[in-house]
């Protein structure tokens, strides 16, 4: 094949800066290449073979990147573990993934130690010091920095967020595939958005690396020869500063980032030179039309959107697509298909909402250890994550909501996302969640839970003001019957709202009607 892929690029230009850590430290391609090679040699000495699993509990930065690069050239499954999990939850993933090695950072020492019993002591390694873990030097000390023999393509195995029960590992089959060719094939992901290779490009990592898209987009950018710049914790103005400082060309974002950026004072937003931005790609949660429009007005035609899932397949909306069809998440990728079906699994006409099924060429997967769930989410070769949407006459996909979040009130289907999109644009709202709660007469009634903007006083007056703002924009049957206020909504750092945490207390003692 060609000349892309991290290892080829690292050998051709080892002195190129391949990554910048959250602390500003620069790391060359040659350094990362050598470190990844040492990890491969060290884990092979521990007995790891192709197809085995490796788990990493790592903050954003090069330590996790090294594990990822090691797995991809040794034929292992690498699982980056969510650092918000508790010890027992981490232990579940260690056991379920059948991990043969666990590397944890001392920042998460307490929960890593609680999870340690799930894996043998000689297979635990610490970046820094963790009780019961061997220092990383025990693994890589004395190991050669030269490329390992018998290299074979590995993969990440991410765990779904578990919003409907225990998380499941999304596992793809591994073949006897050359890692350099595999890395070059990976670059097809960013090519869908028109992203080009080359050392002038810089990819900003804005979200935790344990998320599928963050790993995939960052990894793909690295394989295209881009420099990765890591954020440890996302901050709106800090992001603008980094974009100017490193001449960032591309990133992966979520709508929550947009909302926070647009909340910055005008003088702050104008202070930074953002002329380098070319491909600012977002997904993971619905983006309200006014928010997206405001970002396009500010940043210009560099804001791309897509819809996809860990399991594979998806759509892309270029800025031109979105301007022509506001609210769309785009049309299928060249290697993907979208199918919209009713409850009887029959295709529906254009404009009619149904369950969204996707398919991607060559994307066979299973939920590890759960053939029943794998089968339940499939319709022949297509799969669904439970979203509801419709295609317009030109084949552009519009999302309504998740099926599990749909409210049935008085026999009418109501999509909370539609209501949330109208409320979140109110200047006194930082974030909002809408869901159904029990109602003896109607089955369910609509509840809104609002996180007020900074400095805004919650209470009945604010609730009344928010509801009044819906006048003429949303039919009264879709208005929330009540509004509660919280300091912070429970969102994952990838923007996904953990609505179950908000909704469950209202349903205690009730059987859900849907």
From TrEMBL:
EC main group: ligase
One MF term in the entry's GO annotations: long-chain fatty acid-CoA ligase activity
Domain of life: Bacteria
Record carries keyword Ligase: yes
The AMP-binding enzyme C-terminal domain, residue ranges: 418-496
Pfam families: AMP-binding, AMP-binding_C
Cited PROSITE patterns: AMP_BINDING
Ranges for domain AMP-dependent synthetase/ligase: 7-359
Keywords: Ligase
Keyword Cell membrane attached: no
EC number: 6.2.1.3
PANTHER family per record: LONG-CHAIN-FATTY-ACID--COA LIGASE, NONRIBOSOMAL PEPTIDE SYNTHASE PES1 (EUROFUNG)-RELATED
Protein's recorded name: Long-chain acyl-CoA synthetase
């Amino acid at each position: 094949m060609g000349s892309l892929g991290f290892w080829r690029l690292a050998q051709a230009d080892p002195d190129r800066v391949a990554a910048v850590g959250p602390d500003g430290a620069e790391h060359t391609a040659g350094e990362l290449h050598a470190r990844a090679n040492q990890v491969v040699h060290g884990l092979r000495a521990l007995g790891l073979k192709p197809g085995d699993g490796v788990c990493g509990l790592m903050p954003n930065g090069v330590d996790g990147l090294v594990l990822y690069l090691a797995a991809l050239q040794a034929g292992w499954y690498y699982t980056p573990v969510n650092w918000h999990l508790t010890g027992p939850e981490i232990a579940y993933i260690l056991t379920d993934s059948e991990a043969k090695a666990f590397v944890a950072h001392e920042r998460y020492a307490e929960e890593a130690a609680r999870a340690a019993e799930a894996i043998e002591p000689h297979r635990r390694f610490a970046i820094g010091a963790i009780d019961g873990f061997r220092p990383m030097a025990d693994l890589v000390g004395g190991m050669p920095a030269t490329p390992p023999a018998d290299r074979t393509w590995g993969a990440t195995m991410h765990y779904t967020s578990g919003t409907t029960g225990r998380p499941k590992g999304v596992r793809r089959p591994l073949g006897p595939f050359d890692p350099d060719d595999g890395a070059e094939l990976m670059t097809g992901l960013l090519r869908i958005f028109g992203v080009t290779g080359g050392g002038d490009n810089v990819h900003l990592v804005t979200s935790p690396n344990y998320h599928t898209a963050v790993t995939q987009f960052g990894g793909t950018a690295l394989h295209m020869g881009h420099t990765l710049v890591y954020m440890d914790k996302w901050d709106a103005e800090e992001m603008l500063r980094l974009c100017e400082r490193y001449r960032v060309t591309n990133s992966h974002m979520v709508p929550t980032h947009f909302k926070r950026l647009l909340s910055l004072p005008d003088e702050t937003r104008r202070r930074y030179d953002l002329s380098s931005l070319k491909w600012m790609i977002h997904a993971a949660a619905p983006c309200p039309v006014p928010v997206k429009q405001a970002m396009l007005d500010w940043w210009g035609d560099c804001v791309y959107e897509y819809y996809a899932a860990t399991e594979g397949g998806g759509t892309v909306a270029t800025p031109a697509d979105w301007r022509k069809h506001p609210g769309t998440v785009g049309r299928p990728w060249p290697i993907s298909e979208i199918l919209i079906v009713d409850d009887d699994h029959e295709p529906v006409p254009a404009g009619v909402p149904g369950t969204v099924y996707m398919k991607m060429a060559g994307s066979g997967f299973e939920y590890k250890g759960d053939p029943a769930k794998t089968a339940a989410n499939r319709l022949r070769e297509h799969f669904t994550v439970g979203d509801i949407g419709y295609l317009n006459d030109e084949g552009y996909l519009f999302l309504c909501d998740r099926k599990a979040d749909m409210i049935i009130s008085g026999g009418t289907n109501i999509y909370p996302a539609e209501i949330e999109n109208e409320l979140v644009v109110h200047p006194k709202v930082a974030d909002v969640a809408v869901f159904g709660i029990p109602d003896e007469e109607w089955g369910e009634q609509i509840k809104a839970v609002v996180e007020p903007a900074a400095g805004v006083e919650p209470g009945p007056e604010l609730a009344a003001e928010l509801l009044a703002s819906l006048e003429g924009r949303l039919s009264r049957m879709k208005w929330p019957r009540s509004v509660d206020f919280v300091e912070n909504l429970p969102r994952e750092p990838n923007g996904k709202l953990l609505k179950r945490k908000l909704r469950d207390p209202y349903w205690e003692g009730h059987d859900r009607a849907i």
